[in-house]
Amino acid sequence: MSSTAKKSSRKSTKAKAAPQMTVVETNPATEPSNLTNAALVARRDAAVPRGVASAAPVYAKYAENAELWDVEGNRYIDFVGGIGVLNTGHRHPKVVEAAKAQEDHYTHTSFQVVPYGPYIDLAEKLNSLAPGDAPKKTLLVTTGAEAVENAVKIARAATGRPGVIAFTGGYHGRTLLTLGMTGKVTPYKKDVGPFPSDVFRAPFPSQRDGITVQDALTGLKNLFLTDAQPERIAAIIIEPVLGEGGYTPVPFEMLKELRAICDQHGILLISDEVQAGFGRTGTWFAIEHSGVVPDLITVAKSMAGGYPLAGVIGRADVMDAMAPGGLGGTYGGNPVACAAALAAIEAIENEGLLARSTAMGETLKARFAEIGARAAPYRFWDIRGLGAMVAVEFVTDFDSAQPDADLTKRVIAHALQRGLLLLSCGMHGNAVRVMVPLTASDAILDEGLAIFEAAVAAAVAEEQR
Q: Against a cut of 0.85, is the pTM above it?
């Protein structure tokens, strides 16, 4: 049990910009609209497969930094950030400016046909940011799952081995290979097997399940004895902080032992930083907190400030294992997305967002502890995370520590009614995670936390009716 755990109006308008000459600029959030959320829900139900779920039945019209307005003019504070994509906020001015400037030159040629400078510029920047002294190279693709697939492909080519080991609770994507590595059935793996062979699962340290680091390492070693011959394992892949699995940081001791095990058996270590990277934990990459240097890093989400872009950063000798033509993709490293990524990285550097993440995380943990004590005694079983990658886990009571997914759903629903966007996570669906943009002001953060407390109080009160 974590030690910390023990302890508005929805309609909004923004002022119009000052007139310039005879032209008056208006904020899109306040412009009239004949669209409604209900009408769009009905159209969506008729046109989009039900498997594409949406957490909130509201439709975006305009967003800026950590605020979003729907088509009916309702304002929301965004603690989700497009699922960890917007560390630099909605429509960061420098990101938008860079993307528009690139669009004036060209939007696509395919790097595999006519290459271009922004791809190289970004690759050089990522190589310089990644931990470790060895020379590095970067492959750019489009999605996080594509990055993970390519990392495995590169690892297999570099080692001449087929096997991959992932961990319970890990999330690595929704393509067939990445689903094989993802350690959660519902909703991701339900009814879509069989999955690729030579993918093995090791236990993840879990306070809830009484699995210590030593237990997890013993489980991995037993896996070597029973199913996964180490000489046939190409890579071990792990999220330094579980994403969908509950925002649980990997103990540093575990990461150091994994590095030693990989070195012992000639296995490559892949750090999946798709959600934890680019400042969310207070460092460029979450694994940096441990001092461990991985062989390969997968990146996406907040790298490009909202534009679809992903990549694999790795040791140059490993990255060069594939023959020419073996890597790439039609849209991989799109020039507009590359320009946006360079601007987003510059914003993180120039605006001190790594330090901001650390400070924001301290604020979130302290405030969540206070809110739990006031609004829901003995229901916040754990408050955890690194930097501003923070989650609160709800239980029915501290004695049983029974996961309370129902309370979690009610908190999220009440928050939405009051103008706060939240998202759940965890193997039992009983944790609320925070992915608020690192550019959010203290005032917006305070407002969001006040709404969160009101939502928690309302959700708990429902149980007493």
A: yes
Strand order in the sheet with 380-386: 380-386, 389-394, 431-434, 423-425
Mind giving me the DSSP string for 299-331? E-GGGGTTS--EEEEEEHHHHTTSPTTSS--TT
| pLDDT tens per residue, range 438-453 | 999 999 999 999 999 9
DSSP 8-state symbol, 211:
B
Q: Which helix (H) or strand (E) holds 68?
A: strand 67-70
pLDDT (average), residues 357-373: 98
> DSSP of 325-363, one letter per residue?
TSS--TTTT-HHHHHHHHHHHHHHHHTTHHHHHHHHHHH
Q: Which of 364, 377, 358 is nearest to 434 (CA)?
A: 364
What's the whole-number mean pLDDT along residues 175-198? 91
pLDDT of residue 238: 98
Amino acid at 414: H
Residue 281 DSSP SS3: coil
Q: Write the burial class of residue 256 (CB in 10 Å: 0-12 exposed, 13-18 middle, 19+ buried).
A: middle
pLDDT band, residue 12 (cuts 50/70/90)? very low
Task: State the Cα–Cα distance between residues 295 and 269, nearest whole angstrom.
Answer: 5
Secondary structure of residue 158 in the 3-state scheme: helix
For position 193, what pLDDT does the model report?
A: 87
Helix (H, G, I), strand (E, B) or coil at 3: helix
Using CB atoms within 10 Å of the CB of residue 18, give its burial: 0 to 12 exposed, 13 to 18 middle, 19+ buried: exposed
Which pLDDT tens digit goes with each residue over 81-127?
Answer: 999 999 999 999 999 999 999 999 999 999 999 999 999 999 999 99
Q: How far is CA 179 from CA 4, 20, 119, 146, 191, in A?
A: 34, 53, 29, 12, 12
Q: Would you say 394 and 379 are in contact if contact means Cβ atoms under 8 Å apart? A: yes
The mean pLDDT of 203-221, rounded to a whole number, is 94
Angstrom distance (rounded) from CA 460 to CA 465: 10
Per the CB < 8 A criterion, the answer to whether 231 and 242 are in contact is: no
The distance between the two most distant Cα atoms of the chain, rounded to a whole number of Å, is 77
- Tokens standing for 162? 């087929």
Mean per-residue pLDDT of the chain = 93
Separation in Å, CA 460 to CA 285, 331, 420: 37, 47, 17
Whole-number Cα distances in Å, 51 to 60, 348, 408, 426, 427: 20, 35, 22, 20, 19
Q: What burial letters (b/e) apply to 228-243, b meaning 16+ CB within 10 Å? A: bebeebbbbbbbbbbb
